[in-house]
């Protein structure tokens, strides 16, 4: 049985660790005061940040684009082990959310461009997600555990020139650590409440015959945060993530390198609990067992069958890098990835409408997807006097299929107080398996180039960037099953696009830079597999202008960056619901392109400061204003209807404080961060807003403890949602409008202890 209280052993370990962390600090504070005063002021500076947003390594402050970066230390301090851990809002412009109750597929959005449902093989996301330059075509699998990450770069605004299609909102680039060729072992182990534990291993081996090997393994597991009353069934919101990775780097004397990576991962999750928040006064009586739960529930009102949704990913990539001359570098990135994802979602529970004696209920969505993708990219990076450039070609191919079935899993008794589990899912099915099924294939070709010219005028302070990408897409698919019946609906999409970009940047001083950028991007068309006719839809596109400032002051003690932008959003892909789930188990959607043009405008502010040695303060803010054109609802005689962007708050902000104090035998570290946002909508056609959120997280660490043989040990206490704040991050009336409002709450406070050894 799940216990939310701390076990006695964990309480004892937490108290001992707290004492170990705080007593040396108190005892040595007076001695260390003189050390702090004597320290050179030059050490109290902000770290330089290197990014690859322009396909080459550049300093963040010299790169004319709005970028947020989470480095190794920030990821460890915030406890980021998967992209799902960024849901609390560490980067205000980046919005990550699950698809409805499923945390097995993540929705990723930037600057208001967030697809409501890209959870299908023939639909594409609006933000490109990359791992070491390899594009990931499906949102399924994004919840898997991350390996040894060096940094995560959030590139804001359209990235159509260098990153291609489906980057209308921006790009999320994950950069992992490469083999070093030196012996190093890092081992982490930890545990926390809700039965959580984690183990990570990162091993670098010494180079032999110019080959360096690196091995990574991760296991992170937690029981559910909402109890399922049905005996023997999984609780809600649990996860079991694990994976291994191997990297092999061959260095042929400095002018040529080959890096081969292979990885495999397992991601088992149960859905979030979707609870009834308020009852519609006009609704007919509900079953007595159904409860209105106005606050975050710790136990579901009705016990339900619940099994793990399992995602498995496998991938291999080959990076070749040849330095042909001192000024020309030739690169190749080849990759293959394979994905399978089941999504077993019984998270809606008893929210199936007014009570009917002996009626079946509890819609159990049993969906699965399979996908394979191949990609090949070639790049030439070079420089001439006053000019740097990158040019390349790109090929991408993917094929996938999915199916779904939505039988009932429960049946009411005559009084509605003691529901029973159906003896088999077949007994609750209105249609045979599968209820729907489709296949899709996509092929994309592209050529791109971008150059940065620094004319000799104005003391090399002016930088002019121009580039373009030509993309040709072909997609086709077949919907072969609808409502259990065999059908043959098909779609085809073909398009050729040119996405240019122009940037003017000027160095006011060595540390103060301003820029203006204009660029375009597009999201490919496709078809909605939840449609009853496989209705095709066209591409949507954006054209954005951004003006920015990047600055550092006081010998790099203060950094302040700002960006203001306006985006023209055309032919927006909008979903409309065709079926009320009170009368049918099948959730049917049709997608149309909204006529006309929408606008998204915003402001982003980022600042960091080192007020004195050891302390770093950072804050970020994002304001987003959106106005979309009305769209024709095909299920209401094509009547024009107001539509909204989803998962996008008007105001979002974050703050963090990091303090570090060295001792003779160890280093004390303290981290605290807050992420907050105003409410937002989760459905394009519904005005219902979620709650305001304000999440605080903290971590205390005693690091660099010498344990002999050049080994270091650290111990850390951590907590997420430190003050146990509660808010709905999903709230809707939608398919259950006649019943009332339902929603999903954020996780309760979690905490734990971790230890790490580095050899």
Structure description:
The chain is globular, with a radius of gyration of 26 Å. The strands form nine sheets. The chain has a 22-stranded antiparallel beta barrel. By secondary structure, it is mostly beta strands. The chain has one domain: Beta Barrel (Maltoporin, Chain A). It is built from two helices and 43 strands. It starts with 7 loop residues before the first helix and ends with a strand.
Topology:
Elements: H1 8-38, E1 50-51, E2 58-59, E3 67-71, H2 72-78, E4 94-99, E5 102-110, E6 127-131, E7 134-135, E8 149-156, E9 170-176, E10 184-192, E11 196-204, E12 211-222, E13 239-251, E14 256-269, E15 275-279, E16 309-323, E17 328-345, E18 360-363, E19 365-384, E20 387-405, E21 408-411, E22 420-421, E23 436-453, E24 462-482, E25 485-507, E26 512-523, E27 526-527, E28 536-537, E29 540-553, E30 558-570, E31 573-577, E32 589-593, E33 597-612, E34 615-627, E35 631-633, E36 639-641, E37 651-662, E38 667-677, E39 693-708, E40 711-720, E41 728-732, E42 740-745, E43 750-758
Parallel strand pairs: 6-9
Antiparallel strand pairs: 1-2, 3-8, 4-5, 6-7, 8-9, 10-11, 10-43, 11-12, 12-13, 13-14, 14-16, 15-42, 16-17, 17-19, 18-21, 19-20, 20-23, 21-22, 23-24, 24-25, 25-26, 26-29, 27-28, 29-30, 30-33, 31-32, 33-34, 34-37, 35-36, 37-38, 38-39, 39-40, 40-43, 41-42
Q: What tags apply to this protein structure?
A:
Maltoporin, Chain A; five-stranded mixed beta sheet; 2 helices; 759 residues; 54% strand; disordered N terminus; mainly beta; single chain; 22-stranded antiparallel beta barrel
């Amino acid at each position: 049985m799940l216990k939310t209280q701390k076990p006695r052993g964990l309480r004892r370990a937490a108290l001992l660790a707290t004492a170990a962390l705080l007593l040396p600090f108190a005892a040595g504070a007076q001695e260390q005061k003189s050390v702090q005063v004597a320290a050179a002021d030059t050490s109290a500076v902000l770290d330089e940040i290197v990014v690859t947003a322009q396909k080459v390594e550049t300093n963040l402050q010299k790169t004319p684009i709005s970028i947020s970066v989470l480095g190794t230390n920030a990821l460890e301090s915030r406890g980021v082990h998967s992209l799902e851990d960024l849901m609390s809002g560490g980067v205000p412009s980046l919005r990550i959310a699950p698809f409805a109750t499923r945390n097995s597929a993540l929705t990723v959005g930037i600057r208001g461009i967030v697809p409501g449902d890209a959870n299908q093989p023939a639909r594409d996301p609006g933000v490109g997600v990359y791992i070491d330059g390899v594009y990931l075509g499906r949102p399924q699998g994004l919840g898997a555990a991350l390996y040894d990450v060096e940094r995560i770069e959030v590139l804001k605004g359209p990235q159509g020139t260098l990153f291609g299609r489906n980057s209308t909102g921006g790009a999320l680039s994950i950069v992992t650590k490469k083999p070093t060729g030196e012996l190093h072992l890092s081992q982490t182990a930890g545990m926390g409440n809700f039965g959580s534990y984690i183990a990570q291993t990162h091993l670098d081996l010494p180079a032999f015959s110019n080959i360096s090997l690196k091995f990574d393994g991760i296991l992170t597991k937690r029981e559910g945060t909402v109890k399922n009353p049905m005996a023997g069934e999984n609780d809600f919101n649990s996860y079991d993530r694990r994976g291994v990775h191997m990297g092999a780097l061959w260095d042929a004397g400095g002018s040529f390198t080959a890096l081969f990576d292979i990885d495999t991962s397992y991601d088992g999750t149960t859905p979030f609990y979707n609870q009834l928040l308020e009852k519609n006064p006009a609704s007919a009586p509900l079953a007595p067992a159904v409860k209105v739960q106005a606050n975050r529930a710790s136990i579901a009102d009705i016990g339900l069958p619940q099994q793990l949704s399992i995602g498995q990913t496998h991938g291999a990539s080959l990076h070749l890098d040849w330095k042909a001359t001192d000024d020309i570098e030739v690169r190749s990135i080849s990759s293959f990835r394979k994905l399978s994802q089941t999504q077993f979602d019984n998270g809606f529970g008893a929210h199936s409408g007014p009570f009917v004696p002996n009626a079946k209920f509890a819609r159990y969505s049993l969906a699965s997807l399979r996908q394979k993708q191949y990609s090949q990219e070639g790049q030439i990076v070079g420089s001439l006097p006053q000019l740097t450039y990158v040019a390349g070609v790109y090929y991408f191919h993917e094929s996938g299929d999915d199916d779904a079935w939505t039988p009932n899993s429960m049946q009411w008794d005559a009084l509605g107080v003691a529901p029973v589990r159906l003896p088999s899912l077949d007994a609750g099915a209105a249609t045979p398996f599968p209820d729907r099924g489709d296949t899709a294939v996509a092929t994309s070709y592209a050529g791109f180039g971008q150059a940065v010219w620094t004319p000799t005028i104005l003391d090399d302070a002016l930088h002019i960037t121009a580039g373009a990408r030509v993309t040709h897409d072909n997609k086709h698919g077949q919907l072969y099953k609808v409502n259990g019946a065999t059908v043959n609906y098909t779609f085809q999409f073909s398009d050729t696009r040119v996405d240019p970009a122009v940037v003017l940047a000027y160095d006011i001083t060595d540390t103060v830079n301003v820029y203006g950028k204009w660029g375009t991007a597009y999201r490919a068309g496709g078809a909605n597999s939840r449609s009853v006719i496989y209705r095709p839809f066209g591409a949507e596109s954006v054209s954005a202008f951004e003006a920015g400032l990047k600055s550092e002051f006081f010998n790099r003690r203060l950094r302040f960056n700002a960006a203001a932008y306006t985006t023209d959003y055309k032919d927006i892909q909008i979903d409309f619901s065709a079926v009320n789930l009170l009368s049918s188990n099948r959730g049917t959607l049709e997608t149309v392109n909204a006529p006309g043009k929408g606008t998204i405008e915003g402001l982003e502010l980022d600042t960091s400061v080192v007020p004195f040695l050891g302390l770093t303060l950072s804050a970020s803010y994002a304001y987003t204003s959106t106005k979309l054109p009305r769209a024709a609802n095909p299920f209401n005689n094509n009547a024009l209807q107001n539509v909204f962007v989803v998962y996008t708050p008007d105001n979002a902000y974050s703050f963090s404080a990091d303090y570090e104090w060295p001792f003779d035998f160890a280093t004390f570290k303290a981290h605290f961060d807050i992420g907050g946002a105003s409410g937002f909508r989760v459905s394009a056609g519904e005005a219902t807003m979620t709650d305001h959120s304000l999440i605080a997280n903290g971590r205390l660490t005693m690091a660099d403890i010498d344990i002999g043989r050049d080994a270091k040990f650290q111990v850390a206490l951590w907590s997420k949602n430190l003050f146990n704040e509660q808010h709905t991050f999903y709230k809707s009336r939608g398919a259950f409008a006649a019943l009332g409002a339902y929603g999903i709450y954020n996780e309760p406070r979690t905490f734990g202890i971790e230890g790490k050894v580095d050899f």
